[in-house]
Structures are given as structure tokens and as C-alpha cells.
Write a structure and sequence with these properties.
Strand 12 and strand 13 form a beta hairpin. The longest helix has 37 residues. The protein has 12 helices and 16 strands. By secondary structure, it is an alpha+beta fold.
């Protein structure tokens, strides 16, 4: 979230940010509540000082065995007013927090303004495969090889869920292990394995709540949420903690299943693996100092790109425009892998810098040696990478005329040297 003082002192910047994002927040009500809160706080401090003074006077009068009834009566009136103000302030704080939590992060000046149509392709890597036959879609390939059973997954749970079988399940596991090994052994991340359920404070900390509560799977009796991404539990590892400066940066990577209620609601591209309610993902999360967080973003992006390069999947890097930016991000790159069977670019990773936005919500700080007051860290995360659509690209790009799938060289050690799925 944004600091209230910052919002108060930068009204035009906030209005421009909301306009750039095509987002609406009642800033006028927020400003009125903020003014009323400060006014009430000032009155409260003055009344508490008066009460303390009168209390001392009453003590003196009683010690001197003099009449203190008038003073006691006035102190009672002041105490009642203090109680009334404290109750009012609690109600104001609730409304103020609700409004403040609804304000998205400020987009970085370097990103394009406008809708997704203004997203900018920064660079591309690799070439689309060429076939001497008409390439099949991943759905046809998976059904022909009997490695994904969409029908039985729908029977077990519902539409847009997945049942991997045999080589499909082994391929999924190989991809996860390959990515975790790459990030831990080469890129310097520490592996963690977090819970797949998180509490409300964790979801607020990373920005999914309150805005996107309807899109989340929730256990109502326990007020717990199935995670939409490992970003949520991993970022909240340090919630309400202050780190020492010398411990930064901290890099974590994690495999988790991810759950998205909205997966099948778009009315298009919902067949097969393209939009599913549960998918596997390896996530990278960084806690860094503010002065180099954008350098860290570029490194994070490179770490995600290397996954696709080693898999031999053509991709492009897209810088998102303001209206396509997630609620918490200040700047974001998407990686889109090319899939030959459907002839489309599919988003397989998002790499974002949230600056201090999440850290302020989750109260994650660091302390410099030469200063007494802690600062908020900057948090970043990136998919390294998401598997459902990556599997689409892998199946469709490595397909052979007979319907078999060549296994990328980098994955063969994870599949006992297997060169082809057939």
C-alpha cells in the first residue's frame, strides 16, 4: 500500500496514476477521512494532557484535604469525550484502511501508458520451429499419447482441471526439478517449500486482498485461501519482521501448485492447458534494498529467460503497459513462449518489481547500520516458470510427424535419459 502521508502530499501524482491504470478510487472521501482523523488525534492528545493535569491537581487537593469534587467532575467529562473520540477514531481507521488498501501501486515512469494494446515487445529469442506437416495442438498430442486425461479430470473435479498420466506426470515432475536445480545451483536462490493455504493477513500483504477476493478459492470456516501463486506464502515469510542490512538481498525459490478460480471465465482459449484452475509453478522471490531493486528486476528476468533458453522454446519479453499491470506491481515484464500447434504466444512468466508496496502492507523492513529508523525493503517476484502453458509450448514445438515428442536435452537426465515420448 501507499503511505497516507505520501498520498496526502502527492494528490496529483496519485490521480495521474489511477488515470494511467484506468482505475477508480474515492480519493475525496479518503482525504476527508484523513483530515478528520488528524483533527481528532490532535483533540485527543490535548484532552489526554488536560486529564493528566487535572489528575495531578486532584491528587494535590486530596493530599491537602481540600474539596476536589469540581475537578473530579471535569475530569469525568473529559474522560467521556476521550472515550467517544477513541471509538470514532477506530471507525475512521477501518474506513481509511479500506480505502488505502484499494489504491494500486504507482506505475514506473519507464513503462508504456494505456491498455494492453500498448504493451511493448522488448526483445525476442529463438526461432519458431518449421514442420513438413501440419502441427497438432497439445490437446490432440496429449490425447494421442495418453499423457493427459482431460475428461476424467472433469469427472473428478470439473472443467479446466488437469489429470496428468504416465509420461505426462513424469514430464511435469522433470520440469519442476530442472527449474529448482537451475535456480538453486546456478542463480543463487534458496529453496523453500511453503504451505498451499494462507491466512487473510498474508493475502492482504501481497495485494490479492481485498481487491480480488472473489477470484480466490477460500475455506470459509477457517478464513484460509488456496494460494494463487507461491509469491503469497514466500513473501510473507518475513511479514512483521525487520532484517539486518547485511542479510540483503534474500533470494527464495519455491515450487507450489497454484489455484485460480477465474481460470475458465474468459469465454475463449479455455480448452486444454491454456486456462486452468490448478497449475504447477516454480516461483522466484527477492527481498532487496531500494537503491538497486530495478537492477535486481533485470537479473530476475534473465533467470526466468534462461529456463526457456535451456528448454529451447522461442519467446519474447513484453513490458506491460499501465492498464495491464497487476495491482501491486510498479513494473512488470511478461515472458511469452511461442507454441506452434496453436500458432500463439503464451504467457509463461511475469517478473515484477513491487518496490515498497507489498513490504508496507506486510510490514517487512530492514535496518541500516548507520541509521536508527528501519526502511521498507523492496520485493520482487517472477515465475521461473509456470508449467501449464510451458507444457503446451514444449509439446507443440517438439512434436514429430508420428505424434511423438522429442525431449529437450536439458530434461533427459531427469527422465532417465529418455529421448522421445511416444
Amino acid at each position: 500500500m501507499l503511505d497516507l502521508k505520501f498520498i496526502r502530499e502527492n494528490q496529483e501524482l496519485i490521480k495521474q496514476s489511477l488515470n494511467d491504470r484506468n482505475s477508480k478510487v474515492d480519493l475525496d472521501t479518503l482525504a476527508k477521512l484523513d483530515d478528520l482523523r488528524r483533527k481528532n488525534l490532535l483533540e485527543l492528545e490535548e484532552l489526554r494532557a488536560q486529564r493528566n493535569k487535572i489528575n495531578d491537581e486532584v491528587s494535590f487537593l486530596l493530599k491537602e484535604k481540600k474539596d476536589a469534587l469540581a475537578k473530579i467532575a471535569s475530569m469525568k467529562d473529559i474522560s467521556q469525550r476521550i472515550g467517544s473520540l477513541e471509538k470514532e477514531l477506530k471507525e475512521i481507521d477501518i474506513d481509511l484502511d479500506k480505502l488505502a488498501l484499494s489504491i494500486p501501486n504507482i506505475p514506473h515512469p519507464s513503462i508504456p501508458r494505456g491498455s494492453a494494446a500498448n504493451n511493448k515487445v522488448v526483445r525476442s529469442w529463438g526461432e519458431a520451429p518449421k514442420f513438413d506437416f501440419k502441427p497438432r495442438t497439445h490437446i490432440d498430442l496429449a490425447q494421442g499419447l495418453d499423457i493427459i486425461d482431460f475428461g476424467r479430470a472433469a469427472k473428478i473435479t470439473g472443467s479446466n482441471w488437469i489429470l496428468y498420466k504416465g509420461w505426462g506426470a513424469r514430464l511435469e515432475r522433470a520440469l519442476i526439478n530442472f527449474m529448482l536445480d537451475l535456480h538453486t545451483q546456478k542463480h543463487g536462490y534458496t529453496e523453500v517449500f511453503p504451505p498451499f493455504l494462507v491466512n487473510r493477513d498474508s493475502m492482504i500483504g501481497t495485494g490479492q486482498l481485498p481487491k480480488m477476493e472473489e477470484d480466490m478459492y477460500k475455506l470459509k470456516e477457517d478464513d484460509l485461501f488456496l494460494i494463487p501463486t507461491a509469491e503469497v506464502p514466500v513473501t510473507n515469510i518475513f511479514r512483521n519482521e525487520t532484517l539486518e542490512e547485511e542479510k540483503l538481498p534474500v533470494y527464495y525459490t519455491a515450487y507450489t501448485a497454484c489455484f485460480r478460480r477465474e481460470a475458465g471465465s474468459y469465454g475463449k482459449d479455455t480448452k486444454g492447458l491454456n486456462r486452468v484452475h490448478q497449475f504447477d509453478k516454480v516461483e522466484m522471490v527477492k527481498f532487496v534494498k531500494p537503491d538497486n531493486s530495478y537492477d535486481e528486476l533485470e537479473k530476475l528476468l534473465q533467470d526466468a529467460e534462461e529456463v526457456l533458453q535451456l528448454l529451447g522454446l522461442p519467446y519474447r519479453v513484453v513490458m506491460l503497459a499501465t492498464e495491464d499491470l497487476s495491482f501491486s506491481a510498479s513494473k512488470c515484464y511478461d515472458l511469452e513462449a511461442y507454441a506452434a500447434g496453436c500458432d500463439k504466444w503464451l504467457e509463461v512468466s511475469s517478473c515484477s518489481n513491487f518496490e515498497s508496496f507489498q513490504a508496507r502492507r506486510a510490514n517487512i523492513k530492514f535496518k541500516k547500520k548507520d541509521t536508527k529508523k528501519p526502511e521498507f525493503v523492496h520485493t520482487l517476484n517472477g515465475s521461473g516458470i509456470a508449467l501449464a502453458r510451458t507444457v503446451i509450448a514444449l509439446l507443440e514445438n517438439y512434436q514429430q510427424k508420428d505424434g511423438s515428442i522429442l525431449v529437450p536435452d536439458i530434461l533427459r537426465p531427469y527422465l532417465n535419459g529418455t529421448e522421445r515420448i511416444s
